[in-house]
Amino acid sequence: MTRLTHINQAGEAHMVDVSTKAETVREARAEALVVMHPETLQMIVDGKHHKGDVFATARIAGIQAAKRTWELIPLCHPLMLSKVEVTLEAQPEQQRVRIESRCRLSGKTGVEMEALTAASVAALTIYDMCKAVQKDIVIERLRLLSKSGGKSGDFEVNSND
Prior knowledge:
Layout: E1 24-35, H1 38-45, H2 54-67, H3 69-72, E2 83-91, E3 96-107, H4 112-130, E4 138-148, E5 155-156
Antiparallel strand pairs: 1-3, 1-4, 2-3, 4-5
Helix pairs in contact: 2-4
């Protein structure tokens, strides 16, 4: 059974001490899906949204959020990320936008939360920019796709999922 490490011996939540851990290259990827009406997606793809370039704004929001994860999620360590990448892909056949984020650093703790935060904030930004056009947009399947580096080893979602 895996022991939760954010609980100390007194049973209280605390920030994990990573000072004795070795620095390794660590990378994580996450995704989120934003489902919308075909007309809303087409408006975004055609660049006809009155608020501007939805994908560019969502990309910047995701990058900024990854860099500030430690301010948003209690007990996360402040990290000096060496790379944050957010890609957005219109998938008209599924009436959605697929967001994938990738975070990397050389450090003592992983970047899973940063990748998840980047994908979720990019998705929320799309919702925010499009809510005047469509209120029933659905954000779904926020998940970790992969992680590498660190003591707990590598992880990758089965490509069939």
